[in-house]
Write a structure and sequence with these properties.
This protein is an alpha/beta fold and 243 residues long. Helices cover 32% and strands 21% of the residues. Strands 5-4-8-1-9-10-7-6 form an 8-stranded mixed sheet. The termini are far apart. The model has no long low-confidence stretch (mean pLDDT 90).
Length: 243
């Protein structure tokens, strides 16, 4: 089975939609998705993801049904104490003080001070993990510890239109990595495609593997650079974004 996670195109957060640049990105994405083999489509309930999906599928001949999943909305859990931050906005030097436990699959919540006592973070994480696990089980892949038991192997392609934070969280679940690895160590550009697929090296036991992360070939083909959204300044004298 193959999973495609598509981050919404360049966002207009005030309107919860896309900027004019975002509309361009979504149109470029539409050309890539026009002939893609797709079996099921899922989308965040937020407007910027839904608009990306609408434009992104506008060149397809078929009419794919879309299921809106509440747990695909942006993972917007914030730390309970000021300065309130999202997990992908923590300063690296703050995390470094917590040591290696911050990147432990079992201990990251209790090791990283901003997560402590954050029932908001834990509840939303658990909701997203439960939603993903239940969906994959419907398609024949049952989460069992660090593996997936295969009830019905298949080569279906599922597409998820969502957001960087929730994408990072779900990827951590699929490949058994602490969420901070993806929150802090990756950045999926607007309209990018991340491709994940199953490997069943022994019958009945599967694992997920990331084949492509944050692919934006559709933008380069149109002469467009990646949008800056979700990134921070490359050098300190670049004033675009530090916090």
């Amino acid at each position: 089975m193959r999973l495609l996670f598509i981050r919404h195109a360049d966002p207009d957060y005030a309107r919860d939609s896309l900027t004019p640049r975002g509309e361009e990105e979504a149109l470029a994405l539409a050309e890539t998705l026009a002939d893609e083999k797709i079996d099921a489509v899922f989308c965040s309930p937020l407007g910027r993801a839904k608009r990306t999906m609408e434009v992104g599928f506008s060149l397809r001949a078929d009419q794919l049904p879309v299921k809106i999943l509440p747990w695909l909305r942006e993972f917007d859990a914030v730390t309970p104490h000021p300065p309130q931050q999202r997990a992908w906005d923590f300063l690296p030097e703050d995390i470094a003080r917590y040591g290696e436990d911050a990147y432990s699959l079992e201990d990251y919540v209790k090791a990283v001070t901003p997560y402590r006592d954050s029932t908001d973070f834990i509840a939303k994480r658990d909701e997203a993990f439960a939603g993903l696990d239940a969906l994959l089980a419907e398609y024949g892949y049952q989460k069992d510890g660090l593996l997936y038991r295969v009830a019905a192997s298949n080569d279906r392609t599922l597409v998820f239109f969502c957001h960087f934070g929730i994408e990072a969280l779900l990827l951590s679940r699929l490949v058994n990595a602490p969420p901070l690895v993806f929150f802090q160590g990756t950045c999926a550009s607007p309209s990018s495609i991340t491709e994940v697929y199953t490997e069943e090296r022994r019958q009945g036991i599967a694992s997920f593997r990331i084949l492509h992360f944050g692919e934006t070939a559709h933008l380069r083909k149109k002469g467009l650079e990646d949008s800056f959204a979700a990134r921070f300044s490359e050098t300190f004298d670049d004033p675009r974004r530090h916090d």
